[in-house]
Amino acid sequence: MAVEDTFVMVKPDGVRRGLVGEVVGRMERKGLTLEHIRQLTISEETAGRHYAEHTDKPFFGDLIEFITSGPVVAMWWSGESAVSVARTLMGPTNPAEAPPGTIRGDYGLIVTENIVHGSDSPESAQRELDIFFHQQRRGD
Fold it and tell me: How far apart are CA 59 and CA 73, in angstroms?
C-alpha cells in the first residue's frame, strides 16, 4: 500500500442538499488529508473532458446536463490507498445497492443523482485532478 492522491466531487444534488460538510467529515474521520478544495459550476467543456469515457453512451447528454446544473465541490484528497478508501466510503454507484453507512447508502436515492463522484483508479485520479486543479501543486 502507498500514499495516493484521489479526486472526489460533491455533485450538484449533494451541494443543494447541504451534504458537503458530511462528505468532508467522513473523509477526514477516515484519515484522508484534504489537499485542495474549490466550489465551482462546471462548464460544458470541462464536463465533457471529465466524462470523456462516456461520450458515446446514450446517457452522456443527461450526465453533462446534470453535472453543469449547479455548483459542485471539487476536492483533492491524499492518504494511504486513497482511491479505494474514498470509493468504499462512497458506496456503489447505484444508491439502491449501496449499504447503510456509505455516503450513497445513507443519502442517495437514484443512480443519476448519487451525491458524489470519486476517481476509480490512480490513473483516473491524476487525470481528474489535472482537470480540476491543473494550477495547484502540492505545497502551494
Answer: 23
Say if residue 140's pLDDT is above 50: no
Each residue of 62-91: pLDDT tens digit? Answer: 999 999 999 999 999 999 999 999 999 999
Three-class DSSP labels, the chain = CCEEEEEEEECHHHHHCCCHHHHHHHHHHHCCEEEEEEEECCCHHHHHHHCHHHCCCCCHHHHHHHHCCCCEEEEEEEEECHHHHHHHHHCCCCHHHCCCCCHHHHHCCECCECCEEECCCHHHHHHHHHHHHCCCCCCC
Please name each of the domains of the chain with its CATH number.
Answer: 3-133 (3.30.70.141)
pLDDT, tens digit, 9 for 90 and up, residues 30-44: 999 999 999 999 999
Question: Which among 84, 90, 117 is positioned nearest to 7, based on CA atoms?
Answer: 117
Average of per-residue pLDDT values in the chain: 94
Write down the catalytic residue from 36, 50, 54, 117. Answer: 117
Q: Is 117 a catalytic residue?
A: yes
